[in-house]
User: Fold these one by one.
Assistant:
Number 1:
Amino acid sequence: MSDLRKARIANSLMFLVCGLGVASWAPLVPMAKARLGLDNGSLGLLLLFFGVGAMITMPLTGKLVSRFGSKRVIVVSGTLIAAILPLLLILDHTYQMSICLLIFGASTGGINVAMNAQAIKVQRSYGKHIMSSFHGLYSIGGLVGSLGFGLLLKPGLDAMTTIIFISVLLVLITYSQFSSLMSDDPAEIQDKSTKGFKFPSAALLILGAICFISALAEGAMLDWSAVFLTANRHLSIEFAGVGYAMFSVAMAIMRLTGDSVIAAVGRLKVVVWGSVIASAGLILAVCFPYVSLALAGFLMVGLGCANIIPILFSTAGTMPGLSPAYALPVVTSMAYAGILAGPALIGFIAQLLTLPVALGVIGVCILFAGLIFKIKDGRNKAVQIPEEVEALVCKN
């Protein structure tokens, strides 16, 4: 097997580690809510620490990647994720959970920037778009983490044994694949775009803003799907992770086939129509009081959102004149603000109104993200955006 092929497999498994680690937190959320005696607003505030940790780390990770290489950042972050998971199951004080979620979010933020930088490097070596397949392994990790936790509990394993098993698995994968990851040449990635403060260009900020809006749905599925199904659709706790599992199945399928879909219809249409499908899915889930329709809606959210962020990450990582070590932290920070900090906003809206209304608001936001782009088929027109951004998406 060639070194390039090994590097692709190794980095794909790092996406799997990240997805598995983050998704394993999803079924723990309702347990933490009950253990700590939190209402929706208090839970939303607690979840904010997860986002704050990631948002602090992501802008710094580009510097760490430039200095130490993405390989080292990946292995340290993956180890911390594995170490924190069992603590999230047993801590019974809010301040302790807040600190652990801060570290957990920081580790997640670090590995996200580093593995996407590694993915851009591998993609450049391949000479074609393969970013969707990397993110597909993240979604498979999400499926295994959310659904697998419940399945391991059914045979009689206790929750602690289950979460320790998952943590050990994360460590084994991370260290076994470390040597196959591509090495970073600091001179290659540490160009003038990484030195000193440079305000991001309008094009880069627009890409990040669209990522933020799209990622709101992923954050909603991660932190609130289990709560929604148990509290609003009366699903039993052992199946609380099935909503995120449905979402992750759809994400995995679409991302693993995404490179072919993008080649067939073009990146721009994938972004636009994906947003429409995701929006329709959330509206379906919250408007009808049936578990089956809620699960179908979550599946639609996964189908629609699947390839939006991989496309925009790839676009940012290949912007002319910008190092990936500079551009990726900008868009990943904005995207994971949606994934990690967005659920806190959902909690506040849910406390003021209801959780279904909060999720419906996210559906409207996703539709807006799709309308930012125009469909270039000569007939349909929507909200215009700067030509520089549109050209980058269509080109990359």
Note: Residues 94-126 form the longest helix (33 residues).
Number 2:
Amino acid sequence: MQPIDQDFLALDLDAIADAAMGQGSNCQEVLLRIHRTSLRFLSMHDGDVEASSDSTDLAMSVRVLIDGSWGFAGSQVISVPAAIALVKQACALAVLSKPLARISQRPAPEPSHGRVTWVSDYQIDPFSVPSSDVITLLRDRSHELLKAPITTHADLDVTFVKEATFVAHSNGSRISQQRVRVGPSVQITTISELGFDSLKSLAPPVGRGWEYLLGTGWDWDGELAQLPELLEEKHRAPTVDAGTYDIVIDGTNLWLTIHESIGHATELDRILGYESNYAGTSFVPADGVGTLKYGSPRMNIRADRTVPHGLATTGFDDEAVKTTQWDLVADGYLAGFQLDRATAGLAGYGQSNGCAYAESGTLYPIQRMANVNLVPDPNGPSMQQLLATLDDGLYIVGDNSWSIDMQRYNFQFTGQRFHRVKNGVIVGQVKDAAYQGRTPDFWASMEVLGNESTYKLMGALNCGKAQPGQSAPVSHGTPSALFRGVNILNSTQEVQ
């Protein structure tokens, strides 16, 4: 396990926590958070550096609960006097807000976890890698891609993030954590007499280090060697005929449908009406556990904040709640929700399942999405066997654009590649396609799930929520799956 950066631990964390807890001795609870985020970004166009940046955000906040009312204050000054001042400010705001509160807050309890250290699973700290090495790697890959006649432009970038956090709670928990994540992007573009087309790498952002860019967890050499050939086939492909198709959706595409139609829809704060920014509310009823039929009996969705290399994986959330895994959908029926302590208390749940997160030390911890995963069928088919089920259908690979309504119910998704499959054999690509559906109907049409060999852990670095807006990383693992009778649109044709 990698150590937490010593310069972060060198902050007088215990003295700051002691001061905050002492100043807030009359509060029902006090939560102190110190949060440092280091960010490095580098982008390259046709082998030349286009943009480069390094930044660090270090901040501290205090949240208090007084007589059922929350108070919160944050600062970029990290010191004992600053902590004392923040507690005073937060207490004053809690008292001031009490007459405006609709209900008295009774957050779900959480036991003390004492003193704990947790570090995410990575091998090489990307911030220890010289910028020259990053530039050389991206430039070499750019030049290889540009050798292909089809490639007019090659755009590559990478984002490195390292979060170090210290959370202290008046219940006695004092938790130090560090998470590292890497987000690469590769896109090639062709311009010809046929117009232009582009194709991206399928590589997801992950909770790994520099080793990911070198080939641990992803076959870069194999994928990038195939990318120009796939782009040329896409560029010359015919436009899709709109209609109803049986489709096999690869995990590199299906993860985004899970994110939008299940991940956001099962956030309890949206369901209760306490959140509607960015992703809206939800069609899912608060009393639907065990009765709402979400999809096929083969559908099992598991929320997991512990899966190795997941972007939402952590030992404890930002309310000092120990993370876990639990079912959101079981055998096709709604089985649970994503909770922080406030929503768990409001809905009568005995404990949070650890979904609180704040992007910065100056921002309030809010309910955020866990890694939400579709469980593969251990006895299911391989990828080749899945495709063999298609007499005349489509195989969809890679995510692209999407549209979904504000209740997570009606949607359409495009993809990077749509392969035409006839008699179980891929015969070429089509383009300008999108698949359309309504959430319960779409998931009810899922007939076959692939086995573990088809499973991929995908995700995004920047899921948006709240006001003021916050961004959070999240992963979604999914096997490939067969869906019957799905409506396929042609994006170039006007809808009648």
Note: The mean pLDDT is 96.
